[in-house]
UniProtKB/TrEMBL annotation:
<dbReference type="InterPro" id="IPR023057">
    <property type="entry name" value="GlnE"/>
</dbReference>
<comment type="similarity">
    <text>Belongs to the GlnE family.</text>
</comment>
<dbReference type="GO" id="GO:0005524">
    <property type="term" value="F:ATP binding"/>
</dbReference>
<feature type="domain" description="PII-uridylyltransferase/Glutamine-synthetase adenylyltransferase">
    <location>
        <begin position="840"/>
        <end position="934"/>
    </location>
</feature>
<dbReference type="InterPro" id="IPR013546">
    <property type="entry name" value="PII_UdlTrfase/GS_AdlTrfase"/>
</dbReference>
<keyword id="KW-0460">Magnesium</keyword>
<protein>
    <recommendedName>
        <fullName>Bifunctional glutamine synthetase adenylyltransferase/adenylyl-removing enzyme</fullName>
        <ecNumber>2.7.7.89</ecNumber>
        <ecNumber>2.7.7.42</ecNumber>
    </recommendedName>
</protein>
<keyword id="KW-0436">Ligase</keyword>
<keyword id="KW-0067">ATP-binding</keyword>
<dbReference type="GO" id="GO:0047388">
    <property type="term" value="F:[glutamine synthetase]-adenylyl-L-tyrosine phosphorylase activity"/>
</dbReference>
<dbReference type="GO" id="GO:0008882">
    <property type="term" value="F:[glutamate-ammonia-ligase] adenylyltransferase activity"/>
</dbReference>
<dbReference type="GO" id="GO:0000820">
    <property type="term" value="P:regulation of glutamine family amino acid metabolic process"/>
</dbReference>
<keyword id="KW-0548">Nucleotidyltransferase</keyword>
<dbReference type="InterPro" id="IPR043519">
    <property type="entry name" value="NT_sf"/>
</dbReference>
<feature type="domain" description="Glutamate-ammonia ligase adenylyltransferase repeated">
    <location>
        <begin position="50"/>
        <end position="282"/>
    </location>
</feature>
<keyword id="KW-0547">Nucleotide-binding</keyword>
<dbReference type="GO" id="GO:0016874">
    <property type="term" value="F:ligase activity"/>
</dbReference>
Amino acid sequence: MLLIPPVALKPAEKLSLHPDIQADSARDCERLQNLFAQSEAPEAVTWLVQVSPFIARVLQRYGEAANTRLLAPAAADREILRQGIAEQGDNEVNLMRFLRCFRHIEMARIAALDLLGRMPLGRMLAETSALADMLIEETLAAITDSLAARYGRALDDNDEELPLIVLAMGKLGGEELNFSSDIDLIFSFPNAGETRGGRQAVAFDVYYQKVAQQLLKLLGQPTADGQPFRIDMRLRPFGQSGPLVASLSALEDYYHEQGRMWERYAMIKARVLNTSADLAEQVRVMLRPFIYRRYLDYSAIDALRKMKLLINQEARRKGVADNIKLGPGGIREVEFVTQVFQLIRGGRENQLQTRSLLAALSACEDLQHLEAGAIADLLQGYSWLRKLEHVLQQINDEQTQTLPKDWLTRWRVLAACGYAQSEEGWQALLTEAQEHMAAIHRHFIDAIGGEEDLQAMDESEFAILWQDLLADETAIEVLTEAGARDPQACWQAISEFRTLLRKRPSGPRGRELQANLVPALIEGALKYPHAEQVLPRVFEVLGQIVSRTTYLELLAENRDARRQLTFLCQASPWIAHLLAKFPLLLDELIDPVQLYQLPAVESYRHRVSEYLLRLPVDDAEAQMDALRQVKQIFQLKVAAADLNEGVHLMRVSDHLTFLAEAIIEQVVLLAWRQLTATHGCPPGRDESDTGFAVIAYGKLGGYELGYGSDLDLVFISADDNQGETDGAKPLDVQQFYLRLAQRVLHLFTTRTMTGVLYDVDMRLRPSGQAGLLVVRASTLREYLVNDAWTWELQALVRARMVYGHASLYEQFSAIRKNTLCRARDLDSLRSDVLAMRDKMRNHLWQQRERQVDVKQMPGGVADIEFITQYLVLANSQQVPDLAIWTDNIRILEIAAAAKLLSEGEAIQLIEAYQVYRIELHRLALAEQGRLSERDFSEQANTVRGIWQRVFALSTDS
């Protein structure tokens, strides 16, 4: 077994001090003169007070009690601690004060003996660790006693008490705790059950949660007296989001199913406190297969490289060149060199299964994994740096491993380390530190890998943000330096997503891909000004594919795909939600050229039909999913091209409109095939002429479909549809067409795994919701002539057939044109149109401060549509060309040609309409409805002026 070598650091023989130290400590020395006089070694105590303000504070606060223990050679007595705790009774305030007093006095004693060179490093590490063990275990004993009256105790079947199991991690676990350190703990309990013997029986998990919370309060909560320890619970399963206490079976499941490499690394040091030897051995046996693999596990090298890389990034980010723990060649590198052999070979070589760094190094020497010279360099450097680390911390009881910048602290360090208290002395200390660290780093590189290997992994400065143990303040600093406008919100998104993924098992390969992919996506998102909005959208998508390594690999290995994902997510939450709902769309990101290359609008019928031909005709569910998928794919392409300004507004609506028409055709044919397979076809009908037609109103009818628009549809049938179908189960033809319409609606609106195809609104059919689902063409004509309201005639302006045989198309076109071209009483028409517009505005206009309703505001989209519809209904008898087209822009152009509007008015209306529609597209992609913060006052004023003239209204109407 190796021993820690003697360390050159020791106080100067004459205990002389720099004048700056003497001046800084004069007041402390004056206050403590009486204690100095009572001390066995007043000169030594005076020197300690001047070198360590921490020791001075302890002596001032606790007086004779501290002075008596300051130079005592014996370690802390557990029995004295136990009696002191018992004397506090149930007074929690007094107990907390006593625990802090005990800790401070004992740590001042350890610091005093160490600074005076009277305590070897090995003993110092052991005593510091033993003090922590003692405080944890005795405080837990007091807590269980205090809870017994109310909750009883946790007893096994033999009435033996089951204690809270405490896993001491890190340096405490290895019994190598430094002077001013956090302690890393994990809490567990043996098995499920209920407490017995108290007023209120509770489940073990509830009971142990209360015990653990009380321990954290008593030992970790800062008070006016300080705190015994900073307790870190982030190493527990699922980190800060995981349960504070877990059963042993839950721990076993977690580590064997979801445990990560860094957790294996951490568990090397795990030591069981507060329980019997048998139970402690049970815990060790349970953890051993997770920590130590039966095979030679060379993946550990790569994992440790990544951990070291993150440390390097943090040091580089903070500019910490003088950190003797984290810097190149620091204390952490000695630990890494040792633990890489433990992780790789520990499963086969039992000597390496130890918590002690010294024992592990000794095993490496015995097994010839490291040469004797390397062992000597590592031990000497480790001991020297640990001694210096303790001096840095003993001055003010601060958790620091960074060499000081101010000269007063430097003088104290030099005095404690036996160097001349001068600039030359400081340079000599630095030189010796650098020599030790250079030797350590050389052996670290030999064991872990070359600098080139380490640098090759340095792909993203943001990998540090994906680490479970990263402090919030550090993360926010990283994000601030990266230019994040709202670093707090960014970090919240990252940490919440990390917590989410910890609860979703994704396997070793999935976790490896996440570790590479997420930092790259964070880096991409931070390039945009609103990264705090982009990150949650990207994470929403990623959250749907974490169990699909194919997609993770696609994004991890394809930089262009990552770039497109972050671009589209920042540009549109609508697209982000689309990708999250339907991850198969990520395939479209592989080739940006293909993503932004839209097909010709007239090719959609062929493309949609071809997509469905890949599937069995008798698999209705697959056909329904395929229709939804092809719609999503092409909508994504249109939106991507739109956001990249690769397609004009008019063409955006054209693409969405023609896509919808192609899908309508396939839906009708699919419904037809399903129905005729059972009932046969109506007389003289087949797929080429079904005798059935779909009339589109609204946006689809006007070639103005937008993202997420529903479909306003009316179904009609030919007048000669009579008799029965010719199948095995014949139906009356009218009943057949009713079922056909119902099947079409079912195919459109049923929510499958891939969502709804389109929402369909049928309220524009004759007699509205009270009317028949399918009407004959002649019935539609009669209704329009005799019963239609003016608003229904307005809707007819935008109506066109999008599916049906040519004969039905000609019949409907004639019905529409004849209806629109009828002579009308203009006063009644104007009155009806204005009344309807007022009614719509009263019911639908959304008025918000600093926002405008682009569609319903005065002078908005609806006003332009009403102007267009009024011009058609009022003038088609004289200008039949107004009844040809269904889209507003071409109608306005015809109105201008017929002098119903001046050319300037038509241009102004068209330009305003296009501006509004562009904004509505943008708002749809941003999922912001139709309320905009932009200023459209110029367009609105223009439209209102034309409205007044068209409807011959006074300016104050």
